[in-house]
Write a structure and sequence with these properties.
The chain has 356 residues and is an alpha+beta fold. The protein has seven helices and 18 strands.
Length: 356
């Protein structure tokens, strides 16, 4: 009921606030005897952590993870895995001026209306700081999936700037701070985001995640469809306002014969001639690449003054100081990868339980 747990057989419960002493999660359902170390998790956390370039928040958090339970002599024991990440660089004083004010596009107003109390320090529980533990849980999910399944994310649009898909190069992602697969677009984005940051504003982004090597048969019809669980997972990420699978909304403009993923036999196996469905048919994986995209809104905390109200009923003008991402979509990329890993691990375990 409280909404802090995600998953079924593979599940995690997150806890903690942006400016509390620590954040963390408890991962349950991981099978026993899987090799797991803090280094396995840290490698993914390092991709999400703040302060890695001038284009993200300069909050300096090492995001060093500690495994408190569920691992013995280097392998999982089958019991809950508790993970801890300490917060070491909070500046709560940055938020003192807005403790009675509602930031537009934030959840300040709705949190107060729901709970009657609000942690204004960095947004408390609503902060994107929480997504670090999702990445940690996703690292464990990847260990369950094994090396045959790869999950890779890329930023394909920043604000109004889109990549050229004919120049897509997965190798380019590690060579720029934007997770951009188009080297030329990445160079353009540097000046574009610098200008946005200097103006005290922010922009949104579209992130695409591709999961390769996923076997056919994961998911279930009707209420536990693989694509519906992926959509829920991605929509649960802070600032995400839209999700699509495969061609998504563009499929509405197709004729039936255009949208069909035609099939042929090749070397005794079924092959698909297209992947408009994004690797999922009837809620069940087809064995093709699973392709999902999510739209991330512009960062709500900006220096540009905007109109709002305070909790005393006064009309005000507010600008948010502190350290914020001019495009939160950049650091959301490894979070999106992690959530899809969690969904796939969950469905893999459910498939084994039902079908052997």
């Amino acid at each position: 009921m409280a909404g802090n747990t995600f998953g079924h057989l593979f599940r995690f419960t997150s806890w903690g606030e942006s400016h509390g002493p620590a954040i963390g999660c408890v991962v349950d359902g991981a099978p026993p005897r899987i090799p797991l170390s803090e280094a396995d998790i840290q490698a993914h956390l390092d991709k999400r952590r703040p302060g890695t370039s001038r284009f993200v928040t300069q909050r300096q958090e090492p995001d060093a993870v500690k495994i408190l339970s569920g691992v013995f002599e280097g392998v999982t024991t089958g019991t809950p895995i508790s993970l801890l990440i300490e917060n070491v660089d909070q500046r709560s004083k940055d938020y003192g001026a807005i403790k009675d004010q509602f930031r537009p596009a934030h959840a300040d107003y709705t949190y107060l209306k729901k709970y009657g109390v609000r942690d204004y320090r960095g947004g408390g529980r609503q902060s994107a700081r929480e997504t670090a533990v999702r990445v940690a849980a996703g690292a464990i999910a990847r260990k369950i999936l094994g090396e045959s399944i790869t999950i890779r994310g890329a930023v394909v649009q920043m604000g109004q700037q889109k990549i050229d898909r004919s120049k897509w190069d997965w190798g380019a992602i590690g060579d720029n701070p934007f997770w951009c697969p188009d080297r030329q677009a990445a160079q353009t984005w540097e000046g574009y985001l610098d200008d946005v940051r200097k103006r005290g504003s922010s922009v949104g982004a579209v992130i695409e995640v591709v999961a390769s090597g996923v076997p056919a048969g994961l998911g279930a019809p009707i209420y536990d469809k693989l694509d519906s669980d992926i959509a829920r997972a991605l929509m649960s990420i802070n600032a995400v306002k839209g999700v699509e699978i495969g061609d998504g909304f563009a499929a509405a403009a197709h004729f039936g014969e255009e949208n069909a993923d035609e099939m042929r036999m090749q070397d005794g196996k079924v092959t698909f001639l297209a992947n408009h469905a994004g690797g999922i048919l009837g809620g069940i994986s087809s064995g093709q690449d699973i392709v999902a995209r999510m739209a991330v809104k512009p960062t709500s905390s900006i220096l540009t003054p905007v109109r709002s109200v305070d909790r005393h009923g006064n009309d005000i003008e507010i600008r948010t100081t502190g350290r914020h991402d001019p495009c939160v979509g950049i650091r959301a990329t490894p979070v999106a990868e992690a959530m899809i890993a969690c969904v796939l691990a969950d469905h893999l375990l459910r498939q084994r339980a039902q079908c052997g």
